[in-house]
Structures are given as C-alpha cells and as structure tokens.
Amino acid sequence: MQQESGFIKDELFEHHFQPIVDLTDCTVRAHEALFRSQFFASPEQAFQLAVKKEQLYELDSRSVRKAVDTYLKAGYFEKGKKLFINVYPSTILNKSFFSLIDHIIDRFPGLSQSIILEFVENERIRDFNKIENAVKELKKYGLGMAIDDFGKGIDDINRTIELDADYIKLDRYFTSHLFTSKRKQAYVKFLVQYCSQFKLKPILEGIETACDIDVARSLGIRYAQGYALGKPQPLTGIS
Q1: Which of 64-68, 80-84, 151-155, 171-175 comes out lowest in average pLDDT?
Q2: Alpha-carbon torsion 218, 224, 226, 229, what sign?
Q3: Distance of CA 148 to CAs 81, 83, 133, 205, 235, Å?
Q4: Are 17 and 32 within 8 A, CB to CB?
C-alpha cells in the first residue's frame, strides 16, 4: 500500500492551520499547524504507523519542516503571526534535530522567535533532565515552547513543573460544560493564577460557542482556540 511504503519519504501529507485568538481584541495572534494526510483517518494513525516502522523521527521532523515552509512561503511570518507546531519529546532528543532547526531558521530574520514547539501529550517523557536540557538549548535559538492538551496528557503535572514552557494549552475537557461546572471554573482560575505567577500564557482549547468565549474571558483567559474562533483550514482559507 502506498501509505505503508512511501508516505513519509514522499511527504504525502500537508497541514491545515487553526487560529489562536487574543480574546481581548479578537485578533489572530498565531496558528497551529495540524497534520493531515488523505491516506489516514487521523494524524494518530499516521504517527502510529511511523512508530511501528521505527520512523517516528523521520515523520515528525519532516512535518515540522514542511509546516514552517508552508507558513513561510505564504508570508504569514511576515504578517507577525506565530506558528505552533506539534512535536514529540523524543524528536527533540534526536541528535539530528538541532541541525534541522539550524536549517529552518537560517532562511528568514527573526523566524525562530515566531515558532512555538508544542510537546504532544501522548508520548511519555522518560528522562526529564534530558528534555529540560534540550529545551534550554532550543530556547537559546529563540524558539518558544508549549505544553499541549494539559488535562489529557500522560505527564501533565511533571511537564508543567519541570519544563520551561512559555504556553500551556488547556485541553478541551475544561471547556466542555465550563459554563455550568463550578469545579472546572475554579480549576481554570487556579491554572490562570499559576500561569500568571510563573509567566506562562494559558491557551484554552475547544471554544465552540459565544458563551464559551464569554466564560473564558470572565476566568482570565486571554488566548483561545476552537471552532467558534476559526476552524482548521489550508493556508488559502485563513486570514
């Protein structure tokens, strides 16, 4: 099958881009690059195949590079928009990753300050010391770091405490029934306070209604993402 034999080497995938919005003025500050391939029903299936074929780094690194290339060629970095890109923790520990970063950021002045690497939630971090050191080195380039899907991941608390992240993306679990759940509201408030104390920026995912936007604002959330703010689309469809 084609997806078994060549989808990584031939890069038979693309990215759709979903806006991340500043709720104070409803402006788009960034986009998240979301992996898509016609050969797989979900990104997870593609990456599971890559793990099975022992080609996770190859797929993940190619995805990072292609997402940046797409965004760069379309001029969105020039518009001042940041780009969030999912990455596996094991990828940044690969000895080839820093060479890739060198290659990526050499092509556009200030590009590194516009790239935010999101640590995906579904790969356990085995050695936090190694990851912490890698994060320190990547931040020397000017790259930003984000913890993806907080509230869903394997090592949520550990990642939040141990990693020097710039953003914490709160999983859509918190948004679901947030208006009626006093417990969720209290927990989101706590996370906002925690982030404020340690200079982190929380981003609430899963915003689907105007009510969600209002509640998020009332809880002190400044940045948010979800269908009510914009669906993932190819670059030709985003603003």
Answers
A1: 151-155
A2: positive
A3: 19, 14, 19, 10, 22
A4: yes
Sign, CA dihedral 165-167-168-171, equals negative
List the structure tokens of 104: 């990526």
- Whether the per-residue pLDDT at 238 is higher than 70: the answer is no
Q: What is the DSSP string of 179-220?
A: TT-HHHHHHHHHHHHHHHHTT-EEEE----SHHHHHHHHHTT
pTM check: above 0.85: yes
135 Cβ neighbours under 8 A, 6+ residues apart: 92, 145, 163, 164, 165
Closest CA to 206 of 145, 151, 146: 151
The Cβ-side half-sphere exposure at 66, using a 13 Å CA radius, reads: 20
**What pLDDT, on the 0 to 100 scale, is given for residue 37?**
95
Domains of the chain: 13-230 (3.20.20.450)
Q: Report d(CA 103, CA 140) in Å as an integer.
A: 15
